[in-house]
Amino acid sequence: MSATPEDPAIAELNDQIAALGLSISEAKKAAAPKEEWDPLLQQMLALKVQYKQLTGHDHGPSKKEAPKSESKGESNEEASEKNKEKRAKKAAEKAAKEEKKRKQREEREAREREKLEKLSAAATKDWSHVFGDAPMIQSSSKSEDGINKWTKIGDLKKELEGKKVVVRGHLHTSRGVGKGAFVLLRSSLYTVQCVAFESNDVPSAMIKYMTNVPVESIVDVCGILTIPEKAVEGATQSEVEIQVQSYHCVQKATAAMPFQMEDACRPDTVKETDVGAYDHEANQSEGGRVGQETRLDHRWIDLRTPANQSIFRIQSMVCTLFREYLLSQNFIEIHTPKILSGASEGGADVFTLDYFGKPACLSMSPQLHKQMAAACGGFERVFEIGPVFRAENSNTRRHLCEFTGLDLEMAIMEHYDEVLDVIGDLFVYMFDGLKTKCANELQRVKEQHGFEDLEYLRKTLKIDYATGCKLLREAGIAQDDYDDLSTENEKKLGDIVKEKYKTDFFIMDKYPLAVRPFYTMPDPNNPKLSNSYDIFIRGQEILSGAQRIHEPALLEERAKAWGIDVSTISSYLDAFRNGALPHGGGGIGMERVVMLYLGLPNIRKSSMFPRDPRRIAP
Amino acid sequence: MSATPEDPAIAELNDQIAALGLSISEAKKAAAPKEEWDPLLQQMLALKVQYKQLTGHDHGPSKKEAPKSESKGESNEEASEKNKEKRAKKAAEKAAKEEKKRKQREEREAREREKLEKLSAAATKDWSHVFGDAPMIQSSSKSEDGINKWTKIGDLKKELEGKKVVVRGHLHTSRGVGKGAFVLLRSSLYTVQCVAFESNDVPSAMIKYMTNVPVESIVDVCGILTIPEKAVEGATQSEVEIQVQSYHCVQKATAAMPFQMEDACRPDTVKETDVGAYDHEANQSEGGRVGQETRLDHRWIDLRTPANQSIFRIQSMVCTLFREYLLSQNFIEIHTPKILSGASEGGADVFTLDYFGKPACLSMSPQLHKQMAAACGGFERVFEIGPVFRAENSNTRRHLCEFTGLDLEMAIMEHYDEVLDVIGDLFVYMFDGLKTKCANELQRVKEQHGFEDLEYLRKTLKIDYATGCKLLREAGIAQDDYDDLSTENEKKLGDIVKEKYKTDFFIMDKYPLAVRPFYTMPDPNNPKLSNSYDIFIRGQEILSGAQRIHEPALLEERAKAWGIDVSTISSYLDAFRNGALPHGGGGIGMERVVMLYLGLPNIRKSSMFPRDPRRIAP
A147-251: same fold as A1-59? Predict the structure, then answer.
């Protein structure tokens, strides 16, 4: 169904195409970057497609409307007679047509005049309160409502229909369509669509401005909340949109984006393997995929993806739940020093520094100090959340050189099962809490990274090390009861346990004495075993702990058995000589808990600014 | 009022003194250390005093009872007649007396036989379940009730009268009195008196054991809770005591105490001055006073005093309240790296280290990363509790080389007063919370260190820097509006403000631009001022903060104005080039908050294991 060329819609389209053409050629003349005029070109192409649909033929200044059929062949004899009539008729038709055209032209000219007048009025009008770059926010004034003026994007709901709202966010995307602009604004996990169409209150320059503000700039939008006919695709607040009344850029992005946010938000296509070496080079960007290393190089941008916004909200909740539970169990929070004297603690894997002329190192765990506080200092139950440093040159997907330790240490009355009871219940509390308090965040992580919900039992499964080894052997995997478990065998055991007990989370107890630190309390019945345990999520270790030796004589004996020069640990031993409570505890790798709970393939995804042997920035 | 020598009480005393004499001479013969027999000697002296009170003369084997008045002078004439009668009477009396004595002797011998039989029975009986060194707690078994068997010393109340209770604690003091032992057991803030007297169920060896276990050993006491006639002095649980049924040492202190707990707990006599240099030497112990440095050398013991137990419980609560409030205001907790690349951040005052061959340093504040998270990374409101490192060679009472930073950073909509509103309310929340949740702990700190309760207003007082300077000048103290405030003037201003506004806590706003870091947002109206503030408790700074510059161009300009080589901060600048929210925040020194809230004279008292230029252990 073709419209006639005289249709005002066609005329309008012609005007728009001409205006766009002008803008583009001006932009090209001014040597503007392609990013600036390319969207205009896209708009023009869209308009031309629309033109063809309406008129049935391509648009183009060269294709003048030629009178149809006039030059088509007829015999001269027949023609001579008919010609007079036809000519008269044609002349009349022509006159009528011209009259019509004249009228249309006049109408068009009137419209254009009107438009010019409007534009002229617009040009002389001060639109700065309607759109444009806002002055830098320097705390020069406060609005009447103060911060109550703003609504959070996440709070935009149907119930606000018809209400005026003001929102601030990163400009996620913008596009112009005809005389309208469609903008997606993003804040934390949420996005909303804002739309504007040219009108008395919306000058065309504003539409142009809206489509030209660089993505990721900070924008303030004021408008009326409406409910669109169909849900807005690609916006989390899909049931609503904002009819823009004013649009201001609060802070303008001035550098090119190192990658597109749309790419950074794309769901994983390949699930990275989570065992084995981590290859920094392989994690540069490639094609549309934004590589892990590229993301980290520009972490301040990467953190804006809904998945990352969620991961670090979940991380915050893990710490909150950890503390909530332990405080309810009469633990207190402590802060122990990260700079320790000497370099005695861990040999080669320790970062060393100069401390006012004395050798010092960074703490590899708050072990000694948390024991001093809980067992010797009389605090009985303590925890700490703090950085832990490992100078280990491990380039894997699960090692960091600086991570956050969730440490706890407690006096025991008669058996270290008291510690395991606390830890088991602690994790159930954390897992339950995450499910209820971070439902939205979990969903957003799932959308990008896709994971299976963690399975766990309400009474945490505990198996002995020997049982674990037996399970492996039954599955045809070589594992001696007194040898250490390889990472690979840990994974395999995790699979076996999951299959057999339907849990991704379990405790393994009674490790061989030989594979644990010297301060581990030996098993009372089997001298080759110890009162120690690891805890696993999805077959990877997240906690290591034990009952500790509280008798200085035994501590000394065990240190000697390990070949440790007792003089180097004399201050550690001294702490137990003036009365010390029996005690036990454990250290949890916080980033590992987050990584494994969410089934992430790389611990760098659960550390906000990760440190590995190759990365020390940003 | 003297008792007759034949009184059974006297006989009993004689027996006791004889037995003690035997014990002492045996101990001396066995060359036992004085500590062992000295208490017995003290007991014997006490018994002898008792003897003198009862009989009216000193006790002693040499002083036989001489017949009284018999040899007193009478005239021979009168005497001859009376003598016969008297002699007959005397003979009868003597016979009666001897009969009486014989009976008494027989009774005494019967008692002694009985006692010997009991002792013999006791000697063959196994008393190990009643007293003695317990086997090392190695988790070899669990009792039926598990940990429910034990009652916390702090939970021992009148309501448990007549109930059997089991408690564990440090042996605070012990003393033997007669056939009894008085023991004070301590756990965290609380102490209870346990008493035992020799009886069928309490052998004398147990009394001896109880008075001989070294102080500070860990002891399990089982007994019946009773209510003493008058409150027990020196015990926090003064309304109750435990009649000991069994007494076991769970872990024995094996080293001499570097100072006595009683001395360590003594109320401060001299209030140390809180301004000026800290003298390590002067803080060694002297006389009965346990010096600050001696305490820190043996911090694991010093932490046991009720005041220290309270200080670190209050510290834990400060962190809990800080987080509680910020989480309720939609902040999230983050963890930023403490190892930073290069040594650019702070010049000389930074600890440097080698990071896999690259130069690195320890973070002097999470400034850049918290800005990256809040303003650039889209988290909008973040906080962090973590270590902060300063390689400053400052030996004062208020500087540490490693302390705990309570940091927050938040996006602002239009004015940094939004930050100050959050911070002001945060502190009121913390101060209120401490008062209600740590009432007991505050009392215990006060008992030792004595402080005035913090005065603060419900709407935090905010004065401009210029106003502060004017207040000083009005008090005759030289202070220019654009010069930095000395520590001394800060203190003086604190006094003036306290006098004038009745508050120990206030915000000072609008600092001169020249005395703040380059990233501080300049004031919009006066180019010599800035949008920055400090917060004071009792005239000492505990927080420093500001609106930060979020525009990279201005940031660069300000850096240049400070003479900073822009190439060294390029990554900092880059973070603001892809869209950054206007923002502000602050950093709080946690130990300072605790120190000043409690009016402590030295920041080392509010750091569990302090680090200063001279101390890196324990």
Answer: no
Q: Is A398 a catalytic residue?
A: yes
- Taking the CB of residue B86, how many other CB atoms lie within 10 A of it? 12
Nearest to A177 by CA among A325, A321, A30, A44: A44
DSSP code for A256: -
Query: How many CB atoms lie under 10 A from the CB of residue A44?
Result: 20
Q: How far is it, in rounded angstroms, from Cα B517 to Cα B546? A: 10
Query: Can you give the pLDDT at residue A120?
Result: 64
Mutate to test the interface with B, among A137, A145, A354 (most CBs of B within 10 A): A137
Amino acid A71: pLDDT: 45
pLDDT, tens only, A83-129: 778 888 888 888 888 888 888 888 888 887 777 676 666 666 789 99
Identify the helix (H) or strand (E) that includes residue B381: strand B381-389
Among A19-33, B365-379, B436-450, whose mean pLDDT is lowest? A19-33
Q: Quote the Cα angle for B222-B225-B227, to 5°.
A: 150
Three-state SS at A606: helix
The CATH class that applies to domain A147-251 reads mainly beta
pLDDT digits (tens, 9 = 90+) for B597-615: 999 999 999 999 999 999 9
The token duo for B102 is 């014989």
Q: How far apart are CA A522 and CA A529, in angstroms?
A: 6
Question: SS3 letters for B467-481?
Answer: HHHHHHHHCCCCCCC
Average of per-residue pLDDT across A257-264 = 93
pLDDT in tens, B521-580: 999 999 999 999 999 999 999 999 999 999 999 999 999 999 998 888 888 899 999 999
Task: Report domain B306-606's class.
Answer: alpha beta
Side chain identity, residue A117: E
Residue A37 reports pLDDT greater than 80: no
Residue B347: HSE in the Cβ half-sphere, 13 Å Cα cutoff: 4
What CATH number has the domain spanning A1-59? 1.10.287
Would you tell me how many other CB atoms lie within 10 Å of the CB of residue B81?
9
- With beta carbons under 8 A apart, name residues in chain B contacting A333: 315-316, 319-320
CA atoms of A204 and A127, how far apart (whole Å):
11
Whole-angstrom distance, CA of residue A490 vs CA of residue A94: 91
The CATH homologous superfamily for domain B148-251 is Nucleic acid-binding proteins (2.40.50.140)
pTM: 0.82
Spatial distance between the Cα atoms of B10 and B219, rounded to a whole number of angstroms: 36
- In the predicted model, what is the mean pLDDT of residues A23-46? 71
**Closest-CA residue of chain B to A139:** B415
Amino acid making up residue A437: K
Residues of B in contact with A316 (CB under 8 A): 332-334
User: Phi and psi for B209 in degrees, rounded to 5?
Assistant: -60, -45
Residues of B in contact with A522 (CB under 8 A): 138
The domain locations on chain A are 1-59, 147-251, 306-606
Check if A392 is active-site: yes
CATH number of B1-58: 1.10.287
Q: Residues for chain A: how many in total?
A: 618
Per-residue tokens: A195? 């739309």
Measured over the CA atoms of residue B519, residue B522, residue B528 and residue B533, the dihedral's sign is: negative
What is the per-residue DSSP string for A416-484? Answer: THHHHHHHHHHHHHHHHHHHHHSHHHHHHHHHHH--PPPP--SS-EEEEHHHHHHHHHHTT----TTSP
- The 3-state DSSP class for residue B535 equals strand
Contact call for residues B222 and B246 (beta carbons, < 8 A): yes
Q: Active site residue: A36, A198, A392, A551, which one? A: A392
Closest C-alpha among A501, A502, A508 to residue A535: A508
Among A541, A550, A558, A591, the one annotated catalytic: A541
The total number of residues written for chain B in this structure: 618
Q: Sort strands A381-389 and A402-411 into parallel, antiparallel or unpaired.
A: antiparallel
